[in-house]
Amino acid sequence: MEKEKRSRTRLVPLPSRALVPDRDAARDPVLECINLGITLGGIKAVEDFNFTVGRTEIAGLIGPNGAGKTTVFNLLTKVYQPTTGTILLNGRDTHGMNTMQVNKAGIARTFQNIRLFKNLSVADNVKAAMNNDMRYNMLNAILRTPAYRREEIAAHRRALKLLSIFDMQDIADVRAGSLPYGAQRRLEIVRALATNPSLLLLDEPAAGMNPSETAELMDSIRKVHEMFQIAIVLIEHDMSLVMNICEGICVLNFGHIIAKGTPDDIQSNPAVIEAYLGRNREAK
Amino acid sequence: MRRLINLKRVEARRIYLTYFVVIAAYVICQTMSSTKMMSSSMRGMLVPICAYMVMAVSLNLVVGISGELSLGHAGFMSVGAFSGVATAILLQNLLPFAPVRLAIAMISGAVFAALAGFLIGIPVLRLKGDYLAIVTLAFGEIIKSILNNFYLGVDSAGLHFSMLSDTTRLLPGGQLIIRGPMGISRIMKIATFPAGFILVMIALAIVFNLVNSRFGRGFMAIRDDRIAAESIGLDVTKFKLTAFVMSAALAGAAGCLFSLNYSTIVANKFDFNTSILILVFVVLGGQGNMLGSIIAAAALTILPEKLREFSDYRMLLYAVILIMTMLITNNDNIKAFFQNILPGSKAKFQKEESDA
Amino acid sequence: MVFLNFFISGISLGSIYAIIALGYTMVYGIAKMLNFAHGDVIMVGAYVCFYAVARYELPPVLGVLIAMLLCTFLGIIVERLAYKPLRQAPSLAVLITAIGVSYFLQNAALLLWSSNPKVFPSIIGRGAYKLFDGALSVSHVTVLTIVTCLLIMIVLSLFINKTRLGKAMRACSEDKSAAQLMGINVNATISLTFAIGSGLAAVAGALLCSAYPTLMPTTGSLPGIKAFTAAVFGGIGSIPGAFLGGLMLGVIEIFAKAYISSQLSDAVVFAVLIIVLLVKPAGLLGKQVTEKV
Question: Structurally, how many domains does chain C consist of?
Fold first, then answer.
């Protein structure tokens, strides 16, 4: 009985903001950046950033430390307002939007230095992200009306189902801040997914993970990609992860794109080797 | 493996314990009071204690749950007090049945305080931390100044009000209700202990139910990490404002209850020191811990009375107790001690965090 | 001419606020705490000065010096006993402790010196300079206050910017652990900050009570809150900001009293503060800190 109910819980409540017409699902770009740039403290942190992500693409954003990768994420999510250029999300200009509105329009992200709601339970972290799908008002909450109960139960089921992607459903009632590091990173991804994004930005998802954890994470990202059919952009220093998982890769150095292409292109690109991979090889 | 604590169970237990403690305390006090086992000075403090409990719970919603420091909570209490008492006086002839009049007065106090909270919240909630603290302090003082210079009268032609000096020019038979710095006098004391108890229970129910809803999750998410909260699409301003207005409304009702227990009220009663007093309840009881707030409110209201035998030294002693409590509760060695004797306590939580 | 008169008394009142605000802002800059007991140190300083001058008939300069010395000690002791154990504690706990200290000082003063208001003796006489054929009269106290404030401001700026100790203070306010790694004695620096702030409070107490000669155990609290407002107004943590904020607050208060309403002057002062903070959320000269993501 309980199981049956659970299976009827939809991961993405319909109609979803992530839902797109079937035509050219793979080709139609979800994100287009045109001449994107920002000046921070007199320094052009990112300049002439032209980048397109397909509807169901997994793209990688790599580059040495300080290349401006996280700044690009901050521009996309409007933590910083770009000084130049345009961001089109599903063909819509995000000019003038703030972080919250960009999320409602379909971008969700994780953070390089984990930003969980530490004092909330794991399930509440996920349910907090479902706020915009919930309709009940304050009076319903105070009086615990049937509308409140119905939506809360549905949200809880959906949270558990999302958590089960990463096998975290059994620790749903644990305080998020007390989780081990890897679990906190995974929870951030689940929380981002709970907002029904059409584009998921992962900022160094494998940072601090050991090889077996990274391999597990790779499987999970693939699983998410398959289940939700969304675009994913990830910043990562772990080359095995990037080269294995990404269809397209964009390399940044000093705020400029120095190469774009498939993993094979990038691996053989002399500019990239010089700026980034080369140095890595020497170190090894 | 580290033992992970089931937060949901811990929280549920704490909520039931809170309700239980409040009901038990009410039953005991009511019995003692009706069997004359309680001194008359204690009896006179029952309603103010209830009012302070509601104040502490409502401020805890802002300080503990939403994580915003407010130093002007007494301002909302005074708005609620003046509007509520004025309502009670206006309804005196219309509604001879006191409990109904009390209820309507408290609702009126809550509505006016919520309105004040809304007007203040819109501009100030964009500020953070200590800046928000100083602006709430400033608003508390502004409310006090305005109420100190506010005159409200009623006559057969309706309500009249004026600022700075009494220019209401009431018709014969009219009554001046609020007299500027003199406040309101000759109030009928209709606040009762059962009413106070009910208000405490309502405040607790509202806060607990809000916390366990999408609103509470929003408040706490913003408190824990504002940027992450924005990134998942939470409207930070709206959530903060919601918590602030709700808190102001509860404070308004509490202010009304408090004032209807005295024959005279003046705006200076609700000054910066009162705001601080309520903040002390919240901090001593633990941020986000409603039971703690309630116990701290009761204990710190009774304490100065109990210290009366030290006469002149009582406030000095009160200050020393306050400082010592802060030093002791923040001492690492003592924290570790409590952690060992109270398994599953909050101290344990914090230990785990530092492990992680 | 009336306008100029108000302006000068505003500057004079503002100078007192500025001296108090300097103490607030220095302590905030280095210890990141709102020291609500600061206003009561003013009161202690004023009482000490009162007893030295009125009872023991010492020369006023000596009285002020004794007050400064005692307040400096008081500041250091309070810091050591009440605030130092809470260095790692949440800021709210420190705030409540500061309030506890404030209650303590007020009630200790009440026991020691009773609640009867004392009439403060003038430390430099009640005379006044007459300018423009007597149309403009500036009292000696006013001149002394403004000069003292300017002097303190100059000396303090030189100290902070030119000396080793000043550099240590700036380093501690930027990053305490990094300062410690550079061999700066952080505890001593914090004590020094409290000492300077409290010493300044004593001066402010003497000046405040010379201008408004009623002395009570609660004398310090309202000027304390207003000076705190002034510090935030100018951008808390910034020394020129405290100076500017103090002066502006004094001028606004006097003008509000003169031209709007004496009963509502406090409300006007606080309203201006709110407007300034809404336009410049970190105060007039404060640095806006952006959060790193």
Answer: 1
**Pairing relation of β-strands A248-253 and A256-261?**
antiparallel
Residues 6+ apart with CB under 8 A from A235: A60, A61, A62, A69, A70, A73, A112, A201, A202, A203, A204
- Domain ranges in chain A are 28-106+196-284
What is the per-residue pLDDT for A276?
64
The rounded distance, in Å, linking the Cα atoms of B262 and B264 is 6
Q: Which amino acid is at A83?
A: T
pLDDT at A270 exceeding the cut of 60: yes
The reported pLDDT for the residue numbered B4 is: 65
Domain ranges of chain B: 13-271
- Measure the CA–CA gap between B53 and C210, rounded to whole angstroms: 43
Q: How far is A40 from chain C (nearest CA, A)?
A: 12
> Domain residues for C65?
2-279
List residues of B whose CB lies inside 8 A of any A CB: 2, 4-9, 205-206, 209-210, 212-218, 220-221, 223-225, 227-236, 242, 246, 288, 349, 352-353, 356
pLDDT for B65 equals 93
**Residue B347 clears pLDDT 80, i.e. is over it:** no
Chain C residues with CB inside 8 Å of A111's CB? 293
Q: What's the rounded mean pLDDT across residues A15-31?
A: 52
Closest among B5, B67, B3 to A117, alpha carbons compared: B67
Contact status of B303 with chain C (Cβ, < 8 Å):
no
Q: Phi and psi for A135 in degrees, rounded to 5?
A: -115, -20
Over residues A120-167, the pLDDT tens digits come to: 999 999 999 999 889 899 999 999 999 999 999 999 999 999 999 888
Q: Is C241 exposed, middle or buried (0-12, 13-18, 19+ CB in 10 A)?
A: buried
Instruction: Identify the CATH number of the domain in which residue C204 sits.
Output: 1.10.3470
Alpha-carbon gap, residue A126 to A116, rounded angstroms: 10
**Cβ atoms within 10 A of the Cβ of C194, count?**
28
Would you say the C-alpha torsion B261, B267, B273, B276 has a positive or negative sign?
A: positive
Is the CB of residue C293 less than 8 Å away from at least one CB of chain A? yes
Instruction: Using a cut of 0.80, tell me whether the model's pTM lies above it.
Output: yes
Cβ–Cβ under 8 Å, residues A175 and B7: yes
Cβ–Cβ under 8 Å, residues B114 and B248: yes
Contact indicator for B114, B58 with CB cutoff of 8 Å: no
Which region among A96-110, B34-48, C59-73 has the lowest average model confidence (pLDDT)?
Answer: B34-48
Q: Give the integer Cα–Cα distance in Å for B66 and A82.
A: 30
Amino acid letter, B184? I
> Which parts of chain C sit beneath pLDDT 50?
none
pLDDT exceeds cutoff 50 at B261: yes
Q: Is A139 exposed, middle or buried (0-12, 13-18, 19+ CB in 10 A)?
A: exposed
Q: What is the rounded average pLDDT for all residues in chain A?
A: 84
For A177, which of B214, B288, B353 is closest by C-beta distance?
B353
> How many CA atoms, within 13 angstroms, populate the side-chain half-sphere of residue A190?
30
Split at pLDDT 50, 70, 90, the class of A12 is low
Q: Tokens in use for A28?
A: 């139609």
Q: Do A148 and B213 touch (CB under 8 A)?
A: yes
Tell me, yes or no, whether C285 lies in a domain: no
Confidence of residue B339 (pLDDT cuts 50, 70, 90): low
Q: Which fold has domain A28-106+196-284?
A: Rossmann fold (3.40.50)
DSSP B292-348: HHHHHHHHHHHHHHHGGGGGGGHHHHHHHHHHHHHHHHT-HHHHHHHHHHSTTSHHH
Q: Is the Cβ of B161 closer than 8 Å to some Cβ of chain C?
A: no
Instruction: Label residue B338 by pLDDT band (50, 70, 90).
Output: low
- Kindly provide the b/e burial profile for residues A207-240, where b requires at least 16 CB atoms within 10 angstroms of the residue's own CB: bebeeebbebbbebbeebbeebbbbbbbbbbbbe
Q: What percent of chain B has pLDDT over 90?
A: 45
Residue A242: pLDDT over 70: yes
